[in-house]
Specification:
Elements lengths: L3 E4 L9 H16 L3 E4 L13 H11 L23 H13 L3 E4 L3 H7 L31 E4 L6 E5 L3 E5 L1 H4 L3 E4 L7 H11 L4 E5 L6 H10 L6 E5 L1 E2 L18 H6 L4 H12 L10 H5 L11 E2 L7
Parallel strand pairs: 1-2, 8-9, 10-11
Antiparallel strand pairs: 3-4, 4-7, 5-6
Length: 314
Amino acid sequence: MGYRGRFAPSPTGGLHMGNLLVAFCAWARAYRKGGVCFLRMEDIDRPREVDGAAQEIIDDLEYVGLNFVEGVKAQGDHGPYVQSQCDTFYQAAIEHLQKTGRLFACSCSRKDIQRLASAPHLGEEGPAYPGTCREKNLDLNHDDNPVAWRFHVHSDVVRFDDVLCGLHAHDVESETGDFVVRRKDGLWAYHLAVVVDDMRQGVTEVVRGRDLLGSTARQVQLYHALGASPPDFAHVPLWVDSEGQRMSKRRGEDAHTIRRFRERGVDGHRLLGGLGEALGIAQKGERISAPNLADRLEDSVLKVKNVTLDLKSI
């Protein structure tokens, strides 16, 4: 099998320049290697889904000339390409984890975990899970008191060599502990869904933002537990504002969505030129097509931590 990558946005809003940067990098790395980059829609977090966002994302990508020959719109041999249609795959993975002793039910709330933490944790996900329910043998289907399903991590150190960020080593047990693979509300957790989908869709390299670098070690353990070898990983720079804050849908960056640029009549090739300016591979004000910009995208360009550009210049 040749190179297979993917761009996998969540339909919680339209794309902003940070999302577009990841989409372009994923597409471009496949283009440069003569491989395939497909489009997958990660819509498992249904409460956060925004009506019409999936179509807006597709429109945004087409507007700038990122055409995906496989995926949500084009279909292909590795569907479904929408996570809400993949319950049977996730359930099969859960059954495997249960049979191999890597799954248990947990009744702890976030407050419980915070209270029991032996040390403060400054990360986005709070303190490491202390293993409170690991040996309790709680019923996985407890109707009276809903439980989360956690993956029982191993104590060995996980090592991986990111294509762009270099060597990393993480003790998952001490850093995050056993992590959730199905939430108390019955929704599949990100880590399970993304690993199962990347496995079944034959992804050879995961290209995503550096904000997800910390998720990699946990996912590597999941790959191994499910009997698969992890793909390569390439975590690309984050798009930040003038104050160094990461652009985010949750921060309400509506003024900087690709849809807003489209409504203003900004040409798609000019938007790609803006990406190129931020990466230092395009001239100020340049208009450029996706293939031509991809030809300039050497690995060295993506080894910086953050990129930025005054969006008023686009």
